[in-house]
Amino acid sequence: MSQDISRFPFFHEAEAPQGAEGWETMYPYYLVPSEETRKHEDAQFWFADTMHWSRGCHPFDSIGAEAVYYGAGAFSTRIFALPVSLGLDVRVVNGYVYIAPLAVTDPERIQERVGVFQQRAGYYYANWDELYGKWKTKMDGAVESLRSITFPKLDEYDPDEVVDEARGRSSSVAVIENYHRLIDEFFAIWQYHFEFLNLGYGGYITFFQFCKQAFPLITEQSISRMVAGVDVLAFRPDDELRKLAARANELGLAGELAAGEPFAVLRGRLQESGNGRAWLQDFEAARHPWFNYFTEYGFTHDQETWNSDLSVPLQGIARYAAKLAAGEDISRPIERLREERDEIVDEYRALLTEDEARQFDELLGLARKVFPYIEEHNIYVEHWSHNVFWEKTRELAAFLVDAGFLAEADDMFYLNRFELDTVLADVVQAWAIGVPARGKQRWQAEIERRKPIVAALQAASAPPAYGIPPQQVTDPFAVMNYGVTTERVNDWLGASGSAGNSFNGIPGSLGVVEGPVRVLRSEKDLPLLQPGEILVAPITAPSWAAAFAVATGVITDIGGMMCHAAIVCREYGIPAVVGTGFATARLKTGQRVRIDGKAGTVVVLDADDAGDTDLDDAAVAAR
């Protein structure tokens, strides 16, 4: 049977991986495709959000897909009314999250939305600094509110305070109330997330479009370099590692760090000397809040932070210390970036009329003003907020184990958020009445049924897309953040002809470099990266910055010009090609390549291109 390479499969044509049959029952009904919504689903182009969910998600972890795209939709569609874009529709298919940009095409509706957008967005742009300050206060309050949530143990009797203070209700009521608070706070935080994000992208994209129109030959790289050299909070965790490395060298401790021992062993030895104790004091001071930083993107319950796996920051510190000991400069080249930025601005501004130059200045000023939020929101939301959220879910899981309902704490994450609500009602009510929980056997059996299903979903890879792709991908969010361009879609369909010894991606950061590649599947592979190698990964997370001190270049499968990997590589002066689609399948560790971060090309220099078979297999899977 011939394959239709003009489109991807529809949802209803997707087969469950072997062993994962019945996966749909694990998630809320509105997150999975259905016959009722089939006409709408078949009409959209859906692409995988493997940037945030790199593997099939547990039922409870699907809460992120709800909260994220509820927030994105509310602010795009109903609050700021982006003129040509609505929200991003979302589905979970075989455990993976897929999103579809929804466009506004009716000219009258676009014009109506322009008026709403100009009024509302204009207010935020005019008062950006003040409102952004209030946003940070809101986020700090939200994190502290999450932190205050508790799940009181169900003892034989309610505590004396219920009587002594005449509370008039059981302390067990707090279990249900606090669970609802936990969920509501999580959703609220994702509303806050999008309060500024789309406006941040909008400010940059408006400047981007002006430049493209005023300077037809300008490269996307040149435009992005005009807003480079901005000091943002997102670089602070990596800056802390650099400071600790410098402190270790100053105290003569670099050799101690190079051993790569577990932190408990290292700490025990360092406590034996004054210099060691001084360094440990600095290390502990840096940990909160800067090590509350996920090694991935913090969207699933099983991800580690630097604080929960100290081997990650310790390795970064050791690498920086070794570079310092060798006489290398480990500072971010911010002054050079700013000089280059100003030269590019002056060069292009000189080509404009007086009126055009005035508009150029205004739009550039706006782009630079809003740009920090594009990176800083990650610290507040995906890292600090998510860190506390997942801590509280683990406390809730421990509560259910203590109550005798779950055998293991991890079992809780095989329930979705609505099922968990009914379980808590069962546990609390049964305790109050004085009987065993009525659904314990029922849910234990269901959890055991789901475990192999989730394992099968996570063992399978996500097809890159479903549905009929547009002739031209124009959604700015898809292009700028995810790197879903017309060229990438053609690659996924196997129609671009990117065979032979070269393939293309999106120019992420300027520079040309040759060297052997190191293919990393996840953050757990970071210790394998060696100096001088080119890092190849599906996507890099914000916490991978220390690895860029070792790598000479970066290649990713996913991401666009405004993805984290591209932004950080530009700020650190490392060549990068992002959004290649299949680099991790095409390349094998040890192969030599040349990457051109201006042209967005990757050339395989080895005569034996051992990765072609993997690429062909990936392309077939995509179809």
From TrEMBL:
It comes from the Bacteria. SUPFAM superfamilies: Phosphohistidine domain. PANTHER family: PHOSPHOENOLPYRUVATE SYNTHASE-RELATED, PPDK_N DOMAIN-CONTAINING PROTEIN. InterPro entries: PEP-util_enz_mobile_dom (IPR008279), PEP_Utilizing_Enz (IPR051549), Phosphohistidine_dom_sf (IPR036637). This is PEP-utilizing enzyme. Residues 530-600 form the PEP-utilising enzyme mobile domain.
